[in-house]
């Protein structure tokens, strides 16, 4: 069982704690990626990007790389279409490792650095939209850092 917001981990990119919104209205998960840079590794397209794990902060930025598995046109809630790279990564949510497709985009105006879409939770979890952190809370020191407090 998950709530509408959960603490997750992205172990492929050494992100131990990231607050995410569980969004069953979105098919694919989406990560807030800064300074997205495309490059070739062999014959395959790759992306390099920064992950800012704390909400409304650029502190503790981490550089990550991933192979691009596809690109996708995503329509936002405002109707704008964004052409995004799609990567695959492991997401730990509620103590369960999930192999998920994740689109990379700028989410500057959004409250959460990541949305976990329905493909990542389908056939694994039930989502209670009236509850939060049913998969467990991050340690208090992490929660305080996420709020901008040491």
Tell me the layout of helices and strands:
Layout: E1 2-3, E2 5-10, E3 15-23, E4 29-32, E5 34-41, E6 44-51, E7 62-67, E8 70-75, E9 81-93, E10 96-105, E11 114-117, H1 118-121, E12 127-128, H2 140-146
Parallel strand pairs: 1-12, 3-11, 4-10
Antiparallel strand pairs: 2-3, 2-9, 4-11, 5-6, 6-7, 8-9, 9-10
> What is the terminal-to-terminal distance?
31 Å
- Bin the helical content: under 10%
Structural class: mainly beta
Major beta-sheet overview: 6 strands, mixed, barrel
Mean pLDDT: 91
Task: List the helices and strands in order.
Answer: EEEEEEEEEEEHEH
Envelope shape: globular
Backbone CA Rg? 15 Å
Number of helices: 2
Strand content is over 45%
- How many beta strands in the DSSP annotation? 12
Spans of 5+ residues with little confidence (pLDDT < 50)? none
Biggest sheet: strand arrangement? 2-3-11-4-10-9
Could you walk me through the main structural features you see in this protein, from its secondary elements to its overall organization?
The protein is mainly beta and 150 residues long. 7% of the residues lie in helices and 52% in strands. The chain has helices spanning 118-121, 140-146; strands at residues 2-3, 5-10, 15-23, 29-32, 34-41, 44-51, 62-67, 70-75, 81-93, 96-105, 114-117, 127-128. The strands form 3 sheets. It has a 6-stranded mixed barrel. Strands 5-6-7 form a 3-stranded antiparallel beta sheet, with no helix packed on it. The longest helix is centred in the last third of the chain and has 7 residues, at 140-146. The N and C termini lie far apart (31 Å). 25% of the residues are buried.
């Amino acid at each position: 069982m998950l709530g509408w917001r959960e603490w997750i981990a992205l172990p492929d990119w050494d992100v131990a704690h990231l607050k995410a919104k569980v969004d069953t209205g979105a098919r694919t998960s989406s990560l807030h990626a800064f300074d997205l840079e495309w490059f070739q590794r062999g014959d395959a397209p790759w992306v390099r990007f920064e992950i800012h794990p704390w909400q409304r902060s650029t502190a503790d930025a981490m550089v990550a790389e991933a192979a691009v598995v596809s690109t996708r046109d995503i329509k936002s809630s405002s109707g704008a279409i964004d052409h995004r790279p799609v990567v695959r990564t492991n997401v730990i949510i509620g103590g369960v490792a999930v192999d998920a497709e994740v689109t990379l985009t700028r989410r500057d105006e959004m409250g959460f650095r990541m949305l976990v879409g329905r493909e990542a939770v389908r056939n694994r979890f039930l989502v209670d939209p009236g509850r939060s952190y049913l998969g467990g809370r991050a340690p208090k020191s992490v929660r305080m850092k996420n709020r901008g407090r040491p």
